Amino acid sequence: MVIQKDYQISNELLHKGRSILFELMSTLDMKYEISKDLYALYEFYAKCIAEVIINHEIDMLDEVIDFAKGMFETWKQALQIVKGGSAE
After folding, report:
1. pTM of the prediction?
2. Domain that holds residue 39
3. Residue 88 lies inside a defined structural domain of this protein
Protein backbone atom coordinates (compact mmCIF):
# COMPACT_ATOMS: atom_id res chain seq x y z
CA MET A 1 0.00 0.00 0.00
CA VAL A 2 1.48 3.34 -1.09
CA ILE A 3 0.07 5.37 1.82
CA GLN A 4 1.44 2.93 4.38
CA LYS A 5 4.86 2.98 2.72
CA ASP A 6 4.90 6.80 2.65
CA TYR A 7 3.93 6.84 6.33
CA GLN A 8 6.76 4.46 7.19
CA ILE A 9 9.31 6.48 5.24
CA SER A 10 8.20 9.78 6.77
CA ASN A 11 8.20 8.23 10.24
CA GLU A 12 11.77 6.95 9.73
CA LEU A 13 12.90 10.38 8.53
CA LEU A 14 11.27 12.11 11.49
CA HIS A 15 13.00 9.75 13.91
CA LYS A 16 16.28 10.37 12.09
CA GLY A 17 15.76 14.12 12.51
CA ARG A 18 15.18 13.69 16.25
CA SER A 19 18.32 11.54 16.48
CA ILE A 20 20.34 14.28 14.82
CA LEU A 21 19.02 16.83 17.30
CA PHE A 22 19.81 14.53 20.23
CA GLU A 23 23.33 14.06 18.88
CA LEU A 24 23.78 17.82 18.60
CA MET A 25 22.49 18.21 22.16
CA SER A 26 24.88 15.58 23.51
CA THR A 27 27.94 17.19 21.94
CA LEU A 28 27.44 20.67 23.38
CA ASP A 29 29.96 21.96 25.91
CA MET A 30 27.60 23.27 28.58
CA LYS A 31 30.17 25.58 30.18
CA TYR A 32 29.32 28.14 27.47
CA GLU A 33 26.11 30.16 27.55
CA ILE A 34 25.50 29.64 23.84
CA SER A 35 25.53 25.89 24.41
CA LYS A 36 22.68 26.25 26.89
CA ASP A 37 20.74 28.33 24.37
CA LEU A 38 21.37 25.83 21.59
CA TYR A 39 20.39 22.96 23.87
CA ALA A 40 17.04 24.61 24.59
CA LEU A 41 16.49 25.26 20.89
CA TYR A 42 17.36 21.70 19.86
CA GLU A 43 15.19 20.33 22.65
CA PHE A 44 12.24 22.46 21.52
CA TYR A 45 12.47 21.21 17.94
CA ALA A 46 12.94 17.60 19.07
CA LYS A 47 9.66 17.99 21.00
CA CYS A 48 8.02 19.47 17.91
CA ILE A 49 9.06 16.43 15.89
CA ALA A 50 7.69 14.18 18.63
CA GLU A 51 4.36 16.00 18.34
CA VAL A 52 4.36 15.38 14.60
CA ILE A 53 5.11 11.68 15.13
CA ILE A 54 2.70 11.06 18.01
CA ASN A 55 -0.18 13.44 17.35
CA HIS A 56 0.27 13.95 13.59
CA GLU A 57 0.63 17.71 14.12
CA ILE A 58 1.74 18.19 10.53
CA ASP A 59 1.53 22.00 10.78
CA MET A 60 4.49 21.95 13.18
CA LEU A 61 6.60 20.33 10.51
CA ASP A 62 6.90 23.56 8.50
CA GLU A 63 8.45 25.29 11.50
CA VAL A 64 10.90 22.42 12.03
CA ILE A 65 11.86 22.43 8.35
CA ASP A 66 12.44 26.20 8.39
CA PHE A 67 14.64 25.78 11.48
CA ALA A 68 16.63 22.98 9.83
CA LYS A 69 17.18 25.04 6.68
CA GLY A 70 18.34 28.00 8.75
CA MET A 71 20.73 25.87 10.77
CA PHE A 72 22.10 24.30 7.60
CA GLU A 73 22.86 27.74 6.16
CA THR A 74 24.41 28.89 9.45
CA TRP A 75 26.72 25.87 9.64
CA LYS A 76 27.60 26.24 5.96
CA GLN A 77 28.61 29.87 6.54
CA ALA A 78 30.56 28.95 9.68
CA LEU A 79 32.47 26.30 7.76
CA GLN A 80 33.31 28.82 5.05
CA ILE A 81 34.60 31.28 7.65
CA VAL A 82 36.72 28.59 9.30
CA LYS A 83 38.17 27.66 5.91
CA GLY A 84 39.14 31.30 5.36
CA GLY A 85 36.39 32.38 3.00
CA SER A 86 33.71 34.94 3.57
CA ALA A 87 30.21 34.17 4.81
CA GLU A 88 28.62 36.42 2.14
Report:
1. 0.81
2. 2-82
3. no
Report helix angle 2-26 to 33-55, nearest 10: 160
> DSSP of 17-74, one letter per residue?
HHHHHHHHHHT--TTSHHHHHHHHHHHHHHHHHHHHHHH--THHHHHHHHHHHHHHHH
Distance from C-alpha of 39 to C-alpha of 29, rounded to nearest angstrom? 10
With a cut of 50, say whether residue 2 has pLDDT above it.
Answer: no
Q: What is the pLDDT of residues 10-63, one digit of tens each?
A: 999 999 999 999 999 999 999 999 999 999 999 999 999 999 999 988 888 999
Q: 3-class DSSP state for residue 78?
A: helix
- Is 44 part of any domain? yes
For residue 87, tell me if it sits in a domain. no
Count of domains for the chain: 1
Q: Kindly state whether residue 15 falls inside one of the protein's structural domains.
A: yes
